[in-house]
Amino acid sequence: MKPALAWLASFRLRLLFRGAFLALALAVVAMAVTVLQEEKQRSYDNYQASLGKTKEQIVARLHHPAGQLALLNPRRDARAASAGQPVVLPYSAIDFDDQNKVQNAVEMAGCLVQYPQSGSLCVAIGNNPWAGGFIYAAGTFASGPLLAHRIGDEILDGAHRLRVTVNLRGQTYRWLAPFEPQAGNGKWEGQRGRFTGYVEQDGRDYTGAKPVREFRGWVWQDGHCLKNSQAGNDETCARKSFFSLRLPVDVLRDALFLRDKPIWPPPDLDQFKVRVEVLAPGEEGTLFDSSRPGAVPPFSLDSLGGLLLSGESLSIRRADARDTEIIQLAGRDEALEQSSPLLTRLIRRLPVESLEAPVVELADEVTTPLGNYRILLKGDARSVNKVLSAVATRVSWFVGAMLGAIGLAWLVIEIGIIRRIAQLTRRTRGLSKSVHADGGLDAYDLADLRGHDELGILATGLNDLLRRVKEDVEREKIRAAQEKDMWHAVGHEIMSPLQSLLALHGSADDPSQRYISRMQQAVRVLYGSASPSEAFESSRLNVAAIDLAGFAANVAANAGIAEVRYVGSSEVLLVRADEFPLEDVFAHVLKNADRHRISGTPIVIDLTSSDSTATVSIFNSGPAIPDELLERIFEYGVSEQPTSGNRGQGLFVARTYMAKMGGTITANNIDDGVRFELALPRLIG
After folding, report:
1. What is the pTM of this model?
2. What is the pLDDT of residue 643?
């Protein structure tokens, strides 16, 4: 087999499994993206159709009398309706004394504000200023049989009565209108009559008070009991009454007739406030109050905002020369589910075919008695992306679960089979060249399993590894035995002459005796050890009291190196140390300083102390030690100049001896050279 094909065959199992799982994961992602694109296309098509239907609904509502009422009163909202603000009717006036006509007019106009307990009220003005400038009020209330005001009785609170309050242009009008019955025509099963209006007074006595001529009020009470309020017999049960009022307002009427072309409707119509109360006889309380909470307003232009979606806007303008905008509505941004930003960007980039422009505009017109209105509905089809993104985020958990299942299956096979085979393959290729073992390998024979696939490579590598390990074991045994014999021989041959020299120079006054003793100690440390580093680390020191000041001065004087100066104090400074190893420490540091100092410059030895520590500083002028070597130069075998024959042993020995004496040694770069600091604990007492 060719080398290239053999290399590819070694990976074919991994490529097969990983490729299959990768293709499966890509298929799931592609399926999800395709479904998203189809849903986006369908959503965009549905949105454009829905926007057209929304426009048709808006136009249909505005063509209805309730919609035309809303167009004539664009600033009316729920708060204004419940506060009794009059509206402009699509009619010039109301035939207030005919129940059917009044009831049809207010119901068709859609101006009734609904209240609890069968109550309702519509407060309005006509759209024609020449109809007299009256305010109309019509509505319903529930009560028992109406009690009438007796003619000649000047106390009005013995009958059912209306209290009407009108506030406009800084003035307040109050009327109190008791019920007065009228004879039936034979067809009406309930009660009917009129409300005669009096200007309300502070007291109960209305002696001499005259009715307001222009105040007109009618009431028709149904003869059937209300099903949800029936109590007692049929004569006392609650019934529904419908009333109609025409309120004369002098300020409004005077303003109309004093001008040739009055402004109508009044520009301050939104400031008018009308309150209607239906009072029960005596102390029975109020049956109906238009200021009571819980009022449900009729249709207004604000209600059209509920038809708009997020991103849509509705503008209604007058179709005249002024082109005045009467209302601008925007779809409310609904709080959607949290969506993924990644999915949102993906959906935004998916192409759709039928979308010509993201912003769609639809226009139409509506005609009212007071003019025409132009409607412009705008929609942003891109808002569909938000909804689709929220749905896609929710569904993405299922896609994520599928991908997770695929990933889990791949992980099981990868860790359980492929990863183990791959690790064994990588290790066997290297182990055959770098690992050595000892014994018990003759029983393994993998020659029959060799081949070009992954298991074959594994078998070939293990077979070569076992063969090489067997050879290396034999060589290692021979080398170790030879090295041990060599150290024994060297130690034996050196110790004998040193013993003879010590006999010749054994006197304490002989300077040679000190150096011979140091050599004997060094040989004893190394004798019989497998390596120098292990020998130094396993050596034992005899720690005693030493005068460090005198010791440092003596080392400087007898160092055998030119220009070594001691500048420290000469006072006795006792430390705990072993004399010979400490001298070796000084010797190694001084040799290192001499090797790196600038020619002609001195090596300066200084001594300082604190309460617990004595520190010797050895300084030389020369190049700085590289930062990456400041800590490593004290490791065995690390040298700044490995090519010059230095083995990196001196500073390792210095640090080892200092540690065994309880001290430390450090190196620091200073401005013009290098300073080594030897710190030893002081001997106190």
Report:
1. 0.52
2. 47
